[in-house]
Design brief:
Elements: H1 3-7, H2 18-27, E1 29-33, E2 38-40, E3 48-54, E4 56-62, E5 68-75, E6 79-80, H3 82-86, E7 94-97, E8 101-107, H4 108-117, H5 120-145, H6 148-163, E9 165-167, E10 170-173, H7 179-186, H8 190-202, E11 206-209, E12 212-215, H9 218-226
Antiparallel strand pairs: 1-8, 2-7, 3-6, 3-8, 4-5, 4-7, 9-10, 10-12, 11-12
Helix pairs in contact: 6-7, 6-9, 7-8
């Protein structure tokens, strides 16, 4: 996969010509991160805009007591780091490589120049920020009105729907999403995740093989949330 082909999949560059994508590509540098390597921390100064060339990135917040809440997982074609550049402020969350990853990095000065030359990019970024805000609103609603079990089931459903790999037994959630990762999505203890997974397994909604979780039927899992 070339840098140009990745850029063509990034929503904010939709409609760019081959020549325009090549111009953007010349501004980028590649930076590699190993699994579990930090990219930046909350309150760090925002200096760069990132696009995921390969791998998977975890965006998260951490409480003073050390409890982690995952905000999003990003993969090939996704971008992040724009908020701090738009308002000249600090990072609003932490970012870490969940797997070995390669990022395409755009410096702030080049980001600013690009926004001035193509103001339509600002509208596209605003749409992405709006979508992320809607997602945050949905999570706040879940935290306010749903119990831990339903939130866990919803998280498993979301992971299977977005990342699930088709197998004869159902949708396989990649093994790099551990029980700890799922607990951090919900903001609960890992032991609670293990207990709920055992319950779902007994009910025939999922199967497990070591660290792997297979959702046998997405519709049935969604109905469980609605019960």
């Amino acid at each position: 996969m070339t840098i140009i082909s990745i850029l063509s999949r990034v929503p904010i560059f939709d409609g760019f010509s081959q020549e325009e994508l090549e111009e953007v590509a010349r501004l980028l540098t590649e930076k590699k991160f190993q699994a579990d390597e930090d990219i930046f921390f909350e309150t760090d100064p925002g200096k760069d805009f990132y696009m995921v060339y390969e791998g998977r990135i975890k965006i998260y917040k951490m409480s003073p007591g050390g409890q982690v809440k995952v905000l999003d997982y990003l993969e090939e074609g996704d971008f992040f780091g724009e908020m701090a550049l738009l308002d000249n402020s600090c990072r609003s969350a932490n970012a870490v490589a969940l797997a070995d990853s390669t990022l395409l990095v755009l410096r702030q000065s080049d980001f600013d120049s690009l926004m001035k030359s193509r103001p339509d990019l600002l509208l596209r970024i605003a749409r992405t920020l709006s979508a992320r805000l809607r997602k945050a609103d949905s999570e706040i609603e879940m935290l306010s009105f749903s119990g831990v079990k339903n939130r866990l089931i919803q998280s498993i459903y979301n992971l299977a729907e977005k990342y699930g790999e088709e197998t004869p037994d159902g949708l396989l959630i990649p093994s790099d999403f551990t029980h700890r990762d799922i607990s951090e999505l919900v903001g609960t203890a890992r032991e609670v995740v293990s207990r709920v997974i055992k319950e779902l397994k007994k009910e025939g909604l999922i199967t497990t093989d070591g660290r792997n979780i297979v959702v046998r039927d997405l519709h049935s899992l969604l109905e469980k949330i609605r019960d």
